[in-house]
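Example with several molecule types.
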Amino acid sequence: MAVPGHRLDRMFNPEVVAVVGDKGPMYMWLQNNMPFKEKGGRLYSVQLDEKEIPGIEALGIQNFRSMADIPEPIDYAVVAVPRQVSPYVLKDLIANGANGAGFFTSGFAETGEELGIKLQDQLTTMAREANFNLVGPNCMGLYLPKSGVRFNADAPVTDAGKIGFLSQSGTHGIMFSLVSAANGLYVSRCASFGNAVVLDVSDYLEYLMLDDETEIIGMYVEGVKNGRRFFEVLREACKRKPVIVWKGGQTEAGARATMSHTGSLAAPQAVWDGMMRQCGAITTNNLDETIDTMKLLLNSKRPKGNGMALMAQTGGQSVSITDAFAKSGLRVPRFSDKTYAELGEFFNIVGGSYQNPLDMAGTIQGSMDTLDRILRILDADPNIDAMAMELSAMFAARQWKKVPDSLDKTIDTLAAHQKRSQKPFLVILHPAHEAEYVASIAPKFHAKGIPLFQSFERAAAAMQRVLAYENR
Amino acid sequence: MSFETVLAQARAEGRTLLNEVEAKSLLKEAGVSVANTTLAKNRDEAQAQAEAAGYPVVLKVVSPDIAHKSDVGGVKLNLSDKDAVGVAFDEILASSKKAVPGANILGVAVQHMAPQGTEVIVGMTTDPQFGPVMMFGLGGIMVEVLKDVSFRLVPLADKDADQMINEIKGRPVLAGVRGQPPADIAALKQTILKVSAFVEKHPEVRELDLNPVFAYPDGALAVDARIVISES
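Resulting structure tokens for the full complex:
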């Protein structure tokens, strides 16, 4: 149990999972949750359609025609039944003593039609009265990589997760889970909560805040139900761990008359932005910014200041990397005299430069000792708070492919520096003309915990966000 | 005048807008630096109060039926003696009555005309989602055109008031431009924090404007104030 006594604890750490109403030929929800069974969890099916039962049993899963026959309380259920049936399923779940359920079923208030609204109200009332943890409806529910409970068959099963993620949108929840994994970052617990009629983002956020396995929290929200509670929970959560808020959509101005100048100026977005800063949350605008920021938060040391050492391979890139970081509000200071003196002992200034930014390929010439020497000198420079280094697929991919060991040695040198140094360090490797190859070697960087970015701009924006967070 | 008294009276009269004299007296009681303002019910009172306030003075009509005082000729600035005050009083009453026939005119607010400072706005509104919210910004064109304002939810911590002041784009103006002395940031911060504490204590306050507040090299002074209360 990760947060003993919390009302969501059983469903977030399930031992008994039921899938209600899954259908062939895909049996998507049972297939998604097979890892749960393989890890020793008790996975049951509830299906009374005789046509579907042989297919379910062929998967090796025990099916019950009635939920009342399940011999033990369910911790978490996935409900994928037609909307008209959903109140009956909820009644059965409550009778079973189930802790919670994700209602994949849609067609409720989001349709705007009368029947949908009525059914949603019915579910809401029933769940509230029974203090039942209804996730959704109209959502993908929970993704618990450690338990093997999943909302997508490609989502990894892993104990390595440190990121708690919450999403009002099912797509963004799945997309985050897959793309973060592709970046070597893993989810601890994720909830896609759709219409949020009973549990809202604040309820899940409170759990993730208390959950020791979750080191950082991210969320995609379009709006919140109880603004005041959200503010209070978010403020508390931000005191305990970094929280990244990706806000989607435009908040609609509530219909209200105002008699003050202040009221007429209080645009919903402006109030939201003020609240975010007040809480100390990190705000992002899209998936990539969200993952980029997490990459630095999880894998790099925290910056103490905004003085960057920028290390490019060539002259043109040394200008571009400087533009990107300067435009993001970071400084590219002069090195200390000691650094200049030390670099001057060996730096090749014909076709190179040891001003900040460095133009260094001509000096390194493939020598890991030289790269290591430069890293050590910059690390010791008191003017420097953080270091960013370009690797060039355009120049190096041919050599790395021919002599894979040369890439491994480069990565080892960078990883050793990162481990040794107390300053944030990141690498930018633009895919250039080698997108496929670069994608294939990215996991080598991830495995060593080196924050890897595809562009100067994305790296700079992530560094700026982490710095703002540190100075909050 | 306690908050409860003013509230009860406004509600008894079916008003949600407190008049300027009421608003200022409540804010003064809450420790906010506001221009001392008194209500004169007749010409003689206006002249006596002007003498006490010290010239130059400003006269403004006080009426629950008149929201935009300048539009009805209800504001007279820079009055420098007793006679000018008497004439201004008569003119304000005449033009207000003409512009809004049947208006219930309580009298005229009399205040010493404060020396010009850097104009800022401090306000509060009730957000439909998040409840009471404080606002800070530079006054005049900066707020009208550029909407250069910052928000924080009540209650405010010390740090929140600092950040509200520091995050507006026009922040350098407060540091003093073109040889002007810097504004008293600590006094502005106190204004924000005291208003925050006031609205936190009185949830009946729905909206509040201190517009403008004059920021001086030493101190800050709210020269106009508006408070809107909830209906029940």
